[in-house]
User: Fold this.
Amino acid sequence: MKVVARLLIFGLLVSIQTFAQEPLREFIYDTAPFPSAHASTIVELSNGDLLAAWFGGTHEGNADVAIWGSRRANGKWSEPFELVRENGTPTWNPVLFHSNDKKLWLYYKFGPNPMSWTGGRLSSSDEGKTWAASEHLPAGLYGPIRAKPLILKNGTIVSGTSVESYRSWAVWIERSEDNGKSWSKFGPITIPPDLYPTPKPEDVPGSNDRAFTEGIIQPTIVSLGGKRLRLYARSPPRMGKICVADSNDNGKTWTQARPIDLPNPNAGIDAVRLNDGRIVLVYNHTDSGRTPLNLAVSKDGESFRMFYTLENDPGEYSYPAMIQGKNGDLLITYTWNRKKIRYVRFKSAGIPLSSDPKSIAP
Assistant:
């Protein structure tokens, strides 16, 4: 009987642990006035509400694509509402964040495609209830290109941006010490030629140009403590790995990029530094396609262990955005099959130390 009792207690503890680790999952909307959605962003508001945004329309790149949003209050998401529309041309990649002066910003891009788009932004002084008129940025200034910027303790905005040209990508750092009134730039940050594998065009069916594309795009930036910053970036198929670059002076200067031992199937990623210093990445742990979608953790920002699978069904689960909420939980949004935006709240208690087992079943 004692053995049976112990087994029952053990089973109960395992069940409790599994339940505690199971995240909240919900779609931000069930129906919307657009069939396709992509590239979400999320921010926590001062009263604990959440605001998410994404681009939606007939399909990516279509002239009817606008920036849409939804607010989560009292445990429920609002119906999608339009935030930005640029007449006659699509919008892309919204990014929400607060500057040190408590202003809420929405940066976005607009134009026919990523090789010819322009940066735009809106600001709100009442946590998104009302917004100032849209401002178009000067050529060459984009703001955060897809992932949230890093706000330093002194209020400096360190924003990761990038430029996509034919067969050539490059990351740039845009840095503002006056809450976005003026900017300085550092770059380009690319991958040294000797770090590339030999290109194999046959590995990228129907896209020989992508097989030869070099560089990195869409960086996400975290602090490693002190004045040390690190960016994690998306790479093209020729590299196929998440790449990193480092700064030792709070983002004024940076190294060139190098790959780490995590796959990247030419897809967006995001990262946060937890309150205890660990780094968590959300990314697609695969060499091709955009499933599965995973979480990985690291103590040093260099060696990661995948510990949770958010999605693993056939389909596309991509372009994740992630922040750490005031209560320590991870708040994540991502594209669900280009049809919806999914929200996940992952309890901080479910984030293992990097010495824990490599994989936890979803």
User: Anything to note?
Assistant: Helices lie at 2-21, 208-212. The chain has one domain: 27-350. The longest helix spans residues 2-21. The chain is about 5% helix and 45% strand.
